[in-house]
Design brief:
By secondary structure, this protein is mainly alpha-helical. It is about 50% helix and about 10% strand.
Length: about 240
């Protein structure tokens, strides 16, 4: 079955101009959505990402690394993490939370912080990047900062920093252009967040040189036009 297509039949997805009520082919619940496959199948975000969320939570809870990029790559290699999907909206804050609390020596706080990140990230629907101009990976960096700084709508510095990191992440994502690629945007968001945390919080997380290992699974891959496309693949 194609990773980019319908999880039921593998057919290509079709994006509608207007949202309509659709019944999830897995759980049977009805939702408003702009996306279905060519054969009429629709899968809600919860069913689409359910297994992925569990994997993310488990690996981030048990990781000892302070490198969110390498942790994200490990997680994205797992068979339960799809090429595209709303699980990436949780993945970004989750790996940042895990690396951050490992770095400051408070890994005991990771589980409760991940619970908050999961709850908040699940409010960001699939396709948010194209339909609302607000990539969930970028929003995930704001979720991360808001959680570690205990921000609220009435906070001052914390409110500013939460919004600022989202803005910076979204700018990096926008400047690299479309179409959607959840792997590319995850990496862009993480690199932006690592720089931000060092500059604003004086906390230095490890990082890695990124060469995408997922391009063969993405039929919309921009190849050499993507900054993460491996050089060896373009020869």
């Amino acid at each position: 079955m194609a990773e980019n297509g319908c999880l039921i039949c593998g057919a290509d997805l079709v994006y509608l101009d207007e949202a309509k009520e659709m019944k999830c082919s897995i759980c049977g619940k009805s939702f408003m959505s702009n996306a279905q496959c060519e054969n009429g199948h629709f899968i809600c975000d919860t069913c689409h990402a359910a297994d992925g969320f569990t994997i993310i939570n488990h690996l981030c809870t048990n990781s000892k690394t302070i490198n969110p990029v390498s942790l994200a790559t490990t997680i994205m290699k797992h068979s339960k993490i799809k090429m595209h999907g709303p699980e990436h909206h949780f993945l970004v804050p989750a790996v940042l939370i895990s690396a951050y609390y490992n770095k400051i020596g408070s890994p005991n706080l990771i589980p409760e912080k991940l619970d908050k990140a999961k709850e908040r990230s699940m409010k960001i629907p699939g396709g948010f990047c194209g339909f609302c101009g607000n990539c969930g990976a970028g929003v995930g960096t704001g979720i991360f900062i808001s959680i570690i700084l205990n921000s609220t709508p009435l906070a001052q510095k914390e409110w500013r920093l939460s919004n600022l990191i989202t803005a910076k992440s979204l700018l990096d994502i926008a400047n690299n252009g479309g179409p959607r690629c959840c792997k590319r945007d995850t990496y862009l968001a993480l690199e932006s967040a690592i720089c931000f945390v060092k500059e604003k919080l004086d906390i230095e997380l490890d990082t890695s040189t990124i060469q995408c290992q997922f391009h063969t699974s993405n039929k919309e891959c921009r190849k050499e036009a993507c900054l993460y496309y491996p050089k060896i693949a373009s020869v």
